[in-house]
Amino acid sequence: xxxxxxxxxxxxxxxxxxxxWVTAVVLAALVSAAGFRSSTGALLEPLESEFGWSRAxxxxxxTANLVIYxxxxxxxxxxxxxxxxxxxxxxxxxxxAVGSGLTVVMTAPWQLWLLWGxxxxxxxxxxxxxxxxxxxxRWFVESRRGLVTGVFSxxxxxxQLVFLPGIAALATGPGxxxxxxxxxxxxxxxxxxxxxxxxxxxxxxGLRPYGAAPGEALDEAPTRHTGxxxxxxxxxxxxxxxxxxxxxxxxxxxxxxxxxxxxNGLIGTHFIPAAHDHGMPETTxxxxxxxxGVFDLVGxxxxxxxTDRVDPRFLLFGYYGLRGLSxxxxxxxxxxxxxxxxxxxxxxYGLDWVATVPPTIALCRRHFGVQRSSMVxxxxxxxxxxxxxxxxxxxxxxxxxTGDYYTAWLTAGGLCLFAAxxxxxxxxxxxxxxxxxxxxxxxxxxxx
Length: 448
Description:
Elements: H1 18-38, H2 40-51, H3 55-83, H4 85-102, H5 109-125, H6 129-139, H7 142-153, H8 155-172, H9 176-197, H10 232-243, H11 247-277, H12 282-307, H13 312-328, H14 330-333, H15 340-352, H16 357-368, H17 370-402, H18 406-423, H19 435-438, H20 440-446
């Protein structure tokens, strides 16, 4: 028989879905934003030493940063709905670069408040966890969102891990100005990546969200409204006005306020100076805080995985309850050296740090619907950072008034135990009259 030429069968290559490229760049932005914001804890004492400012003054700037960071979130979600993710994140990075860069020439406390408190607060707030919620809702189907949300939530810990040790080393070595310039430069370097890779929705590229089967009905967030539009601020305020009618919203709002108090506000801002009060070198304390970030990566991703499988209310009960108990023991754990008991606390607190985020976002989605969940979570997240801001000032006041942080640790522990019990009062199903029971389409139509 004559030989026949057979060309080899074509090799099929499996392309990576664009959702993962968008996720990677957004994750880098979230990691950087968390690092930019958390670096203030390593700069408090260098600023006080150079300018003679009090702990109350520097803590006040941190409070402004945290509060503005949180209050920016719901409006950022509305801006992303109106103008797109890429534009909002790009402008946010440039604002961080300008705010951090100009701190090197400041000479007065009001300049610290304006640059680090307001400019960096707004910039990082636009890249807060609400950004991860928006991307997860648009680029992934429901069954994939919990894990992806967990990955995004871990960005805060990764930011501490990547930036905090270096920022602390620069602040105690060449000086805090070098640390500020590093933050500014890192923000600028991210801008081209965002412009090249990030797109607002899969439909912009003719794609479907990751995990969607052909012909499958989707619950994704709607495309941008056309025709008569309300402004982003009006949209955010209207969402808040509707949300406050729900008991679930107030429970999530209050418990997340306590979450912010016990993480960013107390540990994130005051752990380094508190450990230093007990004789621990600042670089060692910064290393421990970075270690919290290592374990938070594990804990938060695991929490996202669990959120897809376990009732989020019970997860929050466990997270807040164990966190509260651990905080009660902190005064006895701090010392000049890293005792085994302190290391155990760092490991546990790392696992628990942002583990509350995936179940909280899931409850927002369950009770308020996917179309409005990002903006509702934006308001819940605002309470998180307001709580953090109040805690930063409160702990600074306690330290200045009493000479130590003992009362601050006990207060935070008690609040977390209260939050644990409150989470059990959240209803299993959406309340009657909520968007998820009346239908989201009517609500969407009301803002167009």
